[in-house]
Design a protein that fits this description.
heterodimer; A: alpha/beta; Alkaline Phosphatase, subunit A; 9-stranded mixed sheet; 31% helix; B: 4 strands
Chain lengths: 389, 472
Amino acid sequence: MTMNRRDFVRNMCYGGIATWALPRVSFAQVGQTGRLVFVLLRGGFDGLAAVVPYGDPSYRALRGTFAFSESELTPLDETFGLAPGLSPLRPLWDANELAVLHAMAIPHRTRSHFDGQAILETGLDHPVGSSDGWLNRLLQVMSGRRAGIAIAAGMPLSLTGAFEVESWSPTKLGVVDDAFLERLAVLYRSDAALQGRFEAALQQQNLVGEEPMSGGNARRGGITPLMQAAARILRQEQGPNIAAMEFSGWDTHANQGMAGGALDRLLGQLAEGLVTFRTEMGPAWQTTSVVVMTEFGRTARPNGTRGTDHGTAGAGFILGPRLSRAHVIADWPGLAEGALYEGRDLKPTLDTRAALKTVLAGTFDLTASQLERVFPNSAGAGAIAKLMA
Amino acid sequence: MNVTLRALNRFGLGARQGERQRISDARGWLKAQLEAGAPTLRATESTSPTAIADAVRALRMPGQRDEQERREARRRLVELAASEARAALDVRVTSDRPFVERLVTFWSNHLCVSSGAKILVAPLAGSYERDVIRPHVLGRFEDMVLASAKHPAMLAYLDNFQSIGPSSPGARAGQRNNGAKRGLNENYARELLELHTLGVNGGYAQQDVQELARILTGWTIAGIPGPGARIQPRPNTRGRGVVRQARPQQDGPLGFAFQEFLHEPGEKTVLKQRYKEAGAAEGERAIRALCGHPSTAKFVATKLATHFISDDPSPAAVDRLARAFRSSEGDLKAVALAIVDEPDAWREDARKFRTPQDWFVAVLRAFGSMEVNPNAPVVLRQLRQPLWAPPSPKGFGDTMQEWADPDSLLNRGELARTISRLPSVAAVDPRSLVDVVDVPAGNPLHTLIADASIPARERVALAIAGPAFQWR
């Protein structure tokens, strides 16, 4: 009997071959109260170049040759506009499904990628080398059905911890045919501890599929194909409901460019990926929240190599129908000389944990004490009022 | 369970063909490996102290070179890192003392540095394992930790070389000269307590971290410009008869330099123990004290038990190893002997899932490889366990939960198929691969391996991708 991969996997997972049990580990029956996708932009993305404070009187002088003119932007209000690359997000803004967070930073001051990412991913207010990730703690404290998945080449720290999670990545280390996978599956059936995991891998492959995706096959990487793959996994009624994703390339020390430049093209890919994710999720989008964050913002002024250096506060995004309306959340400190943090960076006025706690509370049914366990010592980072419906 | 295979795979790095028949006394074979002294590895010309120092200086002072020189420096760095990785992997694949080599990988991960977090570590990581871990892997734990504390790789990785005593002459002079804020960096002190010695619940407080960081100020890297490079130390007017070294040398090999003018003066207290002002000796005393702390024995024993027994070792087994550590005052050879004698490590039901590096090395040993392919470091990166580049100072995880995720199992299957297509694998007899891992009678692997209708290369792939090969 010859089967293609999809038939083979379907048979295997859904009992076409009667002796094959359903996977045990993965796809625990998840009742969908909500879905969360945490997207980490590794490298420190330039919030001032993404969500542009064109209305700030100091903006033009401070950014110099980097300053966008108002006509290039998608205006959100009298102060802020989206960079040209982010213009595909306009429909989400109009549909009240986009909130922009600005002057936001992790609760610990560092300009190290390593420490910054560790703080953002552990959800703590100081570095602890051995900590679990906050998404894993979320899975630990939530009640009811839940499952986490890393859609990334590697397990992000945010999802690492005692709660068992799944993974899918577009990494392909070799060409395998169905006959080989079928024989391998027979071998894995003899190992009770690993059988369910191997079958889960085949099932995720099946969900992501091999039909062409916009922007190329997911196995080739890139933001949009990965977001598309993520949607195909997350929209399943019985699928994982908490996902971690990550994209790098945001550490723009040199030649970050203007409209159509390196950073703007990357922002364009991000926006396209998010819009594609929303479309691909279908009805499941209604219960989904997406958070986009980075470890730190960049210097307020350009540096000597037409880029920006590691800074402090920056921007982030929340997307999804659970928002009460379109918002710009910013207790704006301003860009005047004296308002800058240490004379060089946008000053932080919003704690990343406040935003994350707010999204969690609006997406899942969580008590205050559960939230406190996800983000210990975060009482000072109170929820943002009226952000979520 | 086959006891010899357990010795070869659990304690060693993977059985080679025919090896199980050659070993009659599994425990004796392991203990004999501990008797031949430190498993030293010599630096080659391409990994010499001079080559390493050049590579580090090129990274540290890029502005002093033109584009051509920078490209050349970059090429040499890549070559150096590749040489180091191959030397380290070659010895894992070919060693006749695989138990000792496993101990090297264990301690190297326990006191890890990571080139993933800091590029400056990339040219230093090979030397770190060679010069810090290998000489002490059968010696004393405190000597290993102390060597680690003074190695440029660790000084750079956890930032200690940039830490300045806030009341030190260097901090005061620095502020006067350029106004830049200089001060304490607690990174290394914190990880020294949390990850290298006492463990996160080992009974220390934030105050201890800060005090330990103060003790370790002035511990910098000799041979590159450090944080004190732009500070002009004033002549020593207090007449203590000490001629201060103005700044570290900026040529010659890299090493450890204690710079007193960056050291926080005065008495410090860590874990209720007072340390009188004594320059570099303060830190040496403090590190030895941390290594002798009861929490350290417990923490290290827990990690060893997790590595050699199971993901969830019994408290009794941890206690036995902790006792061996304490009673020998951290003699790692005595501890290794205690691991061999630990009954739980030989229990039938105790399995350890092979990490990607374990799996890859075991595959090459099973094939009888004499050296690793130059692509090996890339493969390890794809398998998410790049050599000397763990994601955090905690090192790579050591349990099934961290490595046996669905995607990784599929990746091993894909990679196994790729490996099986290599020309060098044509000579591998698939039947030999059932001999190097424990495959119970009646397991479908026996049938598949004997099935001549399946191409031999595919049978090789099935053997190394199948579940039996994933455990040690």
